[in-house]
Amino acid sequence: MKVIQHDKLKSLVENKLSYYSDNSELGIYNTYQKSSGILFKSNELIFGGALAGRKIMHTQGIQNEQVFLPHESYIVAPGETIEIDFPDASLSTPTTCITVEISNDKMDQVTDRLHSILPDIENTTQWELGSPILHTHHCTETQHLLNRLAKLFQENHPDRELMIDLNVSELIVRLLRHKTRDFLLARSNLDPEFDGLTNSLTYIQDNLSSHLDIEKMCKLARMSRSCFYIKFKKKLGCTPLEFQLQLRLSAAAQRIKQHELMTTISYDLGFSSPSHFSRLFKKHFGYTPSCFKKKHTQAKL
């Protein structure tokens, strides 16, 4: 085991503390001054989460930018080069993020184990999903997992390597699940009648604000109720009702960014009341809708 810690401030931009294990590396980056165009590249997959402040990431050669705030995460495909801006960083309020770099061997190991269960999982070399940077609002469970990993990497526990390996495996599984969901949703949009499962996914997307008719979904999927629930959870990792709620909350987050009224959003998406919507939103994203709106409004200033 090798642990490198930088107790003294060596750089005002992307000052890094590194912690190593057998198949992964955890990096904690602090930036203490406004800067732009900072290049970042890794030969292995990077999962990153914003902890404090705002960072803006650009893909070289592509006219786009993605803003990352706390409780949001990103995946950078192996071999990609990105540029990062830190528009708000200062000595008193540094921009902080955490990254987990996962070896290709570890990715392949976990993917191979899952592939027999989820044949829709794509090859790990295709993580870009149409873009070298995959941007997502991670849920509270993923945030807890990142916090746990950060703690484990910094411990000298005799079982440190084993516990890190188990938690990195969990992180990979969560990423693969997320990727597979996106793949299945994209396929249902392109060809709603591809199979029974895509039929049911199309039905859920078309009825986000309505009570789900499970019997109708079973008919669309051409399965018995028990078989439908088993296959749906095996592929999506959750029940149809849980999946509908996740899609509702994701749609709500996008509408909040467009400055729509909270009351309108909550009722349009089928929540019983604004307070009910607020509780579920905070449970999923870690922020109340009003706090989420405030952070994204500030990010545009």
Give an overview of the whole structure.
By secondary structure, this protein is an alpha+beta fold. It folds into 3 domains: 3-178, Jelly Rolls; 191-237; 240-301, Homeodomain-like (Arc Repressor Mutant, subunit A), CATH 1.10.10. Helices cover 45% and strands 21% of the residues. The chain is built from 10 helices and 11 strands. It has a 7-stranded antiparallel β-sheet with strand order 1-2-3-10-5-8-11. It has a 4-stranded antiparallel β-sheet with strand order 4-9-6-7, with no helix packed on it. The radius of gyration is 20 Å and the shape is globular. 29% of the residues are buried. Residues 1-8 and 122-130 have low confidence and may be disordered. Residues 198-295 form the HTH araC/xylS-type domain. It comes from uncultured Thiotrichaceae bacterium. Keywords: DNA-binding, Transcription, Transcription regulation.
Total beta strands: 11
The CATH class of the largest domain turns out to be Mainly Beta
Taking the sheet with the most strands, its summary is: 7 strands, antiparallel
Mean of residue pLDDT?
79
Q: Strands of the biggest beta sheet: in what spatial order?
A: 1-2-3-10-5-8-11
Unreliable parts: 1-8, 122-130
Number of helices: 10
- By helix and strand content, what is the structural category? alpha+beta
Helix coverage percent of residues? 40-55%
Task: Tell me the quaternary state.
Answer: single chain
The N- to C-terminal Cα distance equals 44 Å
Total individual domains: 3
The outline comes out as globular
Order of helices and strands: EEEEEEEEEEHEHHHHHHHHH
Rg over CA atoms: 20 Å
CATH architecture of the largest domain: Sandwich
What is the third-level CATH name, the topology of the largest domain?
A: Jelly Rolls
**Strand coverage percent:** 15-25%
